Amino acid sequence: MTRERKDLRARRLLQMGSEAGTAGLRPGFMERLRARMAAEERAAAAGGALGPAGDPVGALAALARPALAFALGAVILAGAFFAWSPQPSARADQETLAALLEDAPALQALLSGEARGLLPLDNGGDQPSSGGDEGDNR
Amino acid sequence: MPESDASPAGGLPAQAEDASDAALVARAAVGDDAAFEALVVRWQGRVAGLVRHFFRQPQDVEEVAQEVFIKVHRALGGYRGEAPFEHWLLRVATNACRDRLRERRRRPEEVLSQVTEDAQRWLDAALEGAALEAARTESARVLAADLLDALPAKDRIVLVLMDLEGLSSAEVAARTGSTRGAVKVRALRARRALRRLAARVEGRSGR
Predict the structure, then answer these.
(1) Does this complex have an ipTM over 0.90?
(2) I need a labelling partner for A31 at 20 to 30 A (CA). Which of B6, B32, B102, B131 fits?
(3) How many domains are contained in chain B?
(4) Cβ contact B182:B138 at 8 Å
(5) Which residues of B touch A11 (CB under 8 A)?
(6) Do the chains contact at A16 and B199, CB–CB below 8 Å?
(7) pLDDT 10s digits, A9-44
(8) Parent domain of B49
């Protein structure tokens, strides 16, 4: 199918499907419009008078909106507080670790290669076994 | 709107008929129902003419036309008179048509699966320029209208306004609240989609 023929078919499809007839609106349009507007006004007034009970979805939305706004505000405040509060620096962490190494005898023993003094070793026989072993042998 | 006794059935007071749109809008905005009715009587034919491009069923046309005037009535206070009333009114009408079209959008497969092969054949013949008898033409028109429901609402609006109402891309942009460039792009895409729709009819009619 050539491009021209495709265009022609498309144009005809649009014309056929969108062809506005010659008939206008039925007589009495103004009266029907007036009646619909009056009905909508009455419905709006009734909805307003009923309050939330007349519109459960609206009532739910009215409850949810402030709650969501409060939650959003809390998140923003928490974020701002976190950003504002002083963060522990990496240098402080290093200093804490160094102090721990200096002060803990067990870690010092490990670093100096004297771990034998820390662990109960079977082969030396110089480590007293716990009383629990004797109890097990009984 | 409350009942008005200012407008006798079948006509309007002479002063309302003669008043300019701007004067009627100003009076209607402060609650003059006779002025609003004069606007409705003056413009209902134009609004219905636009709406009928998109909806074939008389009840659809009636409902959308009513929605247009209800929206206009509610928004009268916001009309500043910077553009002619007709432009403002038709913009409201175009938006109302777009909203209704969105609600009723269908897939082409769904449309084609629900119509007879005869109707497809007649539409195919009509698209080829063949003359059909009245009943077949009407059947083809119904199918064509249903098929156009498969287009995105904005595409169809642009096509109708440009190709059937004869508006320029700038005028369509003003009518739809878009930009001229966006309208041109939209029109290009819409024409491509329309060609595809027309081709589908040929593919299915068994010719």
Answers:
(1) no
(2) B102
(3) 2
(4) no
(5) 163
(6) no
(7) 999 999 999 986 666 788 999 999 999 999 988 988
(8) 8-104
Which residue in the set A9, A20, A26 is minimally distant from B62, CB to CB?
A26
Task: Please tell me whether residues B148 and B67 are part of one structural domain.
Answer: no
At A123, phi and psi to the nearest 5? -70, -25
Tell whether B127 is within 8 A of chain A (Cβ): yes
| B48 within domain boundaries | yes
CB contact under 8 A, A16 and B123: yes
The answer to whether the CB of B47 falls within 8 A of the CB of B89 is yes
d(CA B122, CA A20): 20
CA angle B141/B144/B149 to nearest 5° reads 130
What percent of chain A has a predicted confidence (pLDDT) above 90? 20
In a domain, B1, yes or no: no
Supply angle C-alpha A30, A31, A35, rounded to 5: 115
> Does some domain include residue B136?
yes
Per-residue pLDDT averaged across B142-152, rounded?
A: 91
3-state secondary structure of B38: helix
Range B57-95 burial, b when 16+ CB lie within 10 A, else e: eeebbbbbbbbbbbebbeebeebeeeeebeebbbebbbb
Q: pTM score, two decimals?
A: 0.67
> How would DSSP label each residue in B83-146?
S-HHHHHHHHHHHHHHHHHHHT---HHHHHHTS-HHHHHHHHHHHTT----HHHHHHHHHHHHH
In this structure, are residues B164 and A18 in contact, taking their beta carbons and an 8 Å threshold?
yes
- Say what angle helices B169-176 and B180-204 make with each other, to 10 degrees: 100
Closest alpha carbon within chain B to A22:
B49
A22 inside 8 A of chain B by CB: no
User: How big is the A-B interface in CB pairs under 8 Å?
Assistant: 114
